[in-house]
Amino acid sequence: MKETTEIYENFFKEKPKYRIVSPGRIDLMGIHTDYNEGFVLAAAIDRATEACASPRSDGKVILYSENIGAASVFLTDNIEKAEKDSRWSNYFRGVYKFLIEEGYEVGGANIAVNGNIPTGSGLSSSASIELAMGTVAKALNNLDVTAEKLALIGRRSENEFVGVQTGIMDQFACALGKKDNALFIDCRTLGYELAPLDMNEVKIVVFNTAKQRGLVGSEYDTRRKQCEEGAAILGVKALRDIDPETFERRKGELPEVVRKRVEHVVYENDRTVRSVEVLRKRDFAEFGKLMNAGHDSARDLYEVSCPELEAMVEISRAQEGVLSARLAGAGFGGCTVSIIEKDAVDKVIPVIKKAYRERTGLKPESYICNASEGAHFTEI
Ligand code: GLA
């Protein structure tokens, strides 16, 4: 990736004051559990949105994106949604809008951004951008704001400004990730615990199926509504409140499709809670089984997989040394996440990619990922 300082200097003809790094994330456990106020296990990764920034005194925000190859300008006292070619800037604009609306004193800025997270692939490029923008605001304006609050502002921006009804997992993992650790998040209380991701024995490998997916207009909102319907019938605030025993006793009350969705969420929550202890014991074989069970349930009961993801998962799991393969993020295309024994990594990656290309005609990519720090900044 090109140096972000250089990009900034070329565009603004001055040196930046701050450098911001905001990671993407992988999710290991908890598929579609976050908006059911359930549990997830996720980690920030070493693919990120970077920004270089300096304050301006005129209330103007000039934002240059290297990935888009364009700039967008707005005023902090009147932040509106951008249209057409500038729509990409809404992920940035929304964060500033809601920070200001929630009482934070945020001035103008020169900002250059640059990133290496593939977009629309399940690695949370959008949450990473939102946290980058929140961290720019924090650095430039010396804001007294916690990482949790920036995560909530990021999600609010995505939900209310961009208009995508995601849960809190992505923003939370991008904000609070810790190097060499996964984050076990209670999506109701936003309490979290760290679970070490010891990479001496295994590696986390992401395969990009090269099948684009879109969250807006996808089945995501339908799934949310089906879960809400299930919770309403069972008389609870969210599906997080249903344990497997209660589900088995009362599943007859649910219409067929809703029953399948609820079954996935209830058992996936249960698996996610169990996975933390398994990870702490460094029992990667057992951990891989839980990941695989989560994927299979997401495919069969939650129905968020697709032929390309299935091809990648099936090919991956057939290789010796591959302990797991599951869809990343919302599903419907994008990436898979695998845990692979360290010594097998170099051998299996080319085999998996070749077999996938032969089967689908698509050109996959792979990224070996390390668990990294959440969004942070340094003064230059
Ligand atoms: C997307 C959303 C998350 C979460 C996952 C599914 O990544 O942004 O909030 O719902 O899908 O687990």
Elements, N to C (H/E): HEEEEHEHHHEEEHHHHHEEHEE
Class inferred from helices and paired strands: alpha+beta
Shape: globular
Number of helices: 11
List low-confidence stretches.
Answer: none
N→C terminal distance: 19 Å
Bound molecules: alpha-D-galactopyranose
Mean pLDDT: 97
Number of strands: 12
Biggest sheet overview: 8 strands, mixed
> How many structurally independent domains?
2
Roughly how much helix do the residues carry, as a percent range? 40-55%
Q: Within the CATH hierarchy, at the fold level, what is the topology of the largest domain?
A: Ribosomal Protein S5, domain 2
CA radius of gyration is 21 Å
CATH architecture of the largest domain: 2-Layer Sandwich
Structure description:
It is a single chain. With 380 residues, this protein is an alpha+beta fold. It has two domains: 4-196 and 372-379, 2-Layer Sandwich (Ribosomal Protein S5, domain 2), CATH 3.30.230.10; 202-369, Alpha-Beta Plaits. 40% of the residues lie in helices and 24% in strands. It contains eleven helices and twelve strands. It has helices at 4-12, 90-101, 125-141, 147-162, 169-176, 220-234, 244-250, 256-280, 284-300, 307-317, 345-360, and strands at 18-29, 39-56, 60-65, 70-75, 108-115, 181-186, 192-196, 202-208, 322-327, 335-341, 365-369, 376-379. The strands form two sheets. Strands 1, 2, 3, 4, 5, 6, 7 and 12 form an eight-stranded mixed beta sheet that branches. Strand 3 (60-65) and strand 4 form a beta hairpin. Helix 3 packs across helix 4 (147-162). The longest helix is centred in the C-terminal third of the chain and has 25 residues, at 256-280. The chain is globular. The chain starts with a helix and ends with a strand. The model has no long low-confidence stretch (mean pLDDT 97). It binds alpha-D-galactopyranose (GLA).
